[in-house]
């Protein structure tokens, strides 16, 4: 790491249990919270999440709140059933209701090692988020700690990430209807373990955390070597704070540029003014493009900054359409059109009654009372659907661009298009007025183009100044 002093500029935390007042301060800085908050805790049974559960009991008492322990059964290991039952008994000891959520990953029998940690994590977050939203819980507490933050920083550093990636995990991340809260980022795993021992609470060791097939496990093995050179996890986590401050500045400038240069549409696409992009600082322009690509594709992760930079250069050079991060980007008279790449949309969702659907990670579909939806599915319109309805589209309707139309959700039955809400098209005699009135559809991707500012972990001024 060029230009970084190898000296220990931050004092090491003592290996002592975390005091209730100490945790209360860390949790309070993740607020504000409503009076008597209802929160959920993701508890796997490992020492990190069990310590979070122990500490949250005292904090919730000061808030007059209520907590729900959520533990996910992946079905990947034979010990999982016993472990989830153990978590449930521990939760009861600390006064929590425990909900066991089932998350079945698609894998062949006996092939559990082929399921990546990333895939398992995405599936786990999906069921956790779904439970919180259905239950009206706005805060999901996660047990990521200082060591996790240091590992994330290193992984992203060696991938060539800029300040946005090196900022690693925020202490609070906003999602539609849900806040992900990480109050343990300033505490080491050793202190979490000591907290459990001090309170007489056991935990479960997950053997997958030591399997070298996983990238994070490999970094965990080399952390002592890196620490011996002066870059311990406390120092690396501090560097992520410095990157976080830079990220906040970038996001502020990008939001200003986006307000001036971007136009968004409820059909899930956007136009970008090319002249404004050219005049902006390159890193800010790249950030804006990456943020819109992430939103239009319905993804949480941003595209790689080098890929965004190459896309921008190619469009400025030739003007020919390019694809990146699940999106199609083309240049025209109105600017750059960024829309979903329709060929990648494979999802077909049954049109269930009385159920909230998330289609292609971008559109929320609410069916309040339609009971006669048998055989109907929501799928992309695509070229095959557009060819069915093109002649019947009214000339009075202002249509979105052709590539956008192909990516829109349409209600199908067998091989026939019944309804395309965004185009105002309805097959004659297919659906009654009451059915149409009962269905609501709106664009709501996981990440906004300009989300709330990155939430940086607070550090003492003297500690932060030593890193700047």
Description:
This protein is an alpha+beta fold and about 475 residues long. It has 16 helices and 19 strands. It has helices at about 20-30, 45-65, 80-95, 115-135, 145-155, 165, 190-200, 215-230, 235-260, 275-280, 280-295, 305-320, 380-390, 400-405, 435-440, 460-465; strands at about 40, 65-75, 95-100, 140, 170-175, 180, 260-265, 270, 320-325, 325-330, 335-340, 350, 355-360, 365, 375-380, 410-415, 415-420, 425, 440-445. It has a 6-stranded mixed beta sheet with strand order 3-2-1-4-6-5, sandwiched between helices. It has a 5-stranded antiparallel beta sheet with strand order 7-8-11-10-9. A 5-stranded antiparallel beta sheet has the order 12-15-16-17-18, covered by helices on one side. A hairpin with a 2-residue loop joins strand 9 (about 320-325) and strand 10. Helix 5 crosses helix 9, helix 9 (about 235-260) crosses helix 11 and helix 11 (about 280-295) crosses helix 12 (about 305-320). The two termini are about 15 Å apart. The relative contact order is 0.10. Residues about 1-15 and about 105-115 have low confidence and may be disordered.
């Amino acid at each position: 790491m060029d230009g970084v002093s190898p000296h220990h500029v931050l004092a090491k935390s003592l290996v002592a249990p975390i005091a209730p007042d100490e945790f209360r301060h860390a949790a309070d800085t993740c607020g504000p919270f409503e009076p008597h908050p209802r929160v959920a805790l993701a508890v796997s049974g490992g020492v990190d999440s069990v310590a979070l559960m122990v500490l949250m009991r005292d904090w919730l008492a000061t808030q007059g709140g209520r907590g729900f322990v959520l533990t996910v059964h992946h079905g990947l290991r034979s010990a999982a059933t016993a472990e989830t039952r153990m978590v449930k008994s521990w939760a009861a000891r600390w006064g929590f209701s425990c909900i066991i959520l089932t998350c079945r990953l698609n894998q062949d029998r006996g092939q559990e090692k082929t399921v990546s940690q990333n895939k398992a994590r995405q599936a786990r977050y999906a069921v956790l988020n779904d439970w919180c939203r259905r239950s009206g819980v706005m805060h999901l507490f996660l047990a990521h700690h200082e060591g996790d933050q240091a590992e994330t920083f290193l992984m992203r550093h060696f991938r060539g990430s800029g300040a946005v990636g090196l900022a690693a995990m925020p202490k609070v991340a906003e999602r539609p209807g849900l806040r992900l809260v990480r109050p343990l980022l300033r505490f080491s795993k050793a202190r979490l373990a000591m907290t459990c021992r001090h309170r007489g609470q056991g935990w479960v060791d997950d053997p997958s955390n030591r399997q070298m097939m996983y990238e994070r496990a490999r970094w965990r093995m080399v952390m002592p070597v890196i620490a011996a050179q002066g870059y311990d996890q406390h120092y690396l986590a501090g560097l992520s704070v410095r990157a976080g401050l830079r990220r906040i500045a970038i996001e502020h400038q990008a939001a200003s540029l986006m307000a001036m240069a971007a136009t968004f549409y409820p059909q899930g696409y956007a136009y970008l003014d090319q002249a404004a992009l050219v005049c902006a600082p390159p890193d800010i322009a790249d950030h804006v493009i990456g943020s819109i690509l992430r939103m239009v594709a319905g993804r949480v992760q941003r595209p790689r900054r080098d890929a965004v930079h190459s896309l921008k250069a190619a469009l400025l050079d030739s003007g020919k359409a390019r694809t990146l991060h699940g999106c199609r980007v083309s240049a025209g008279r109105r600017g750059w059109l960024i829309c979903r790449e329709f060929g990648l949309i494979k999802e077909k969702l049954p049109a269930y009654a009385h159920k909230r659907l998330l289609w292609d990670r971008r559109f929320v579909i609410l069916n309040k009372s339609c009971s006669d939806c048998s055989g109907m599915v929501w799928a992309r319109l695509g070229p095959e659907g557009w060819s069915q309805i093109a002649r019947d589209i009214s000339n009075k309707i202002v249509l979105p661009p052709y590539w956008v139309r192909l990516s829109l959700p349409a209600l199908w039955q067998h091989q026939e298009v019944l309804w395309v809400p965004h185009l105002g098209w309805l097959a004659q005699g297919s659906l009654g007025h009451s059915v149409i009135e009962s269905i609501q559809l709106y664009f709501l991707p996981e990440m906004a183009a300009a989300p709330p500012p990155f939430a940086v972990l607070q550090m003492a001024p003297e500690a932060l100044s030593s890193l700047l």
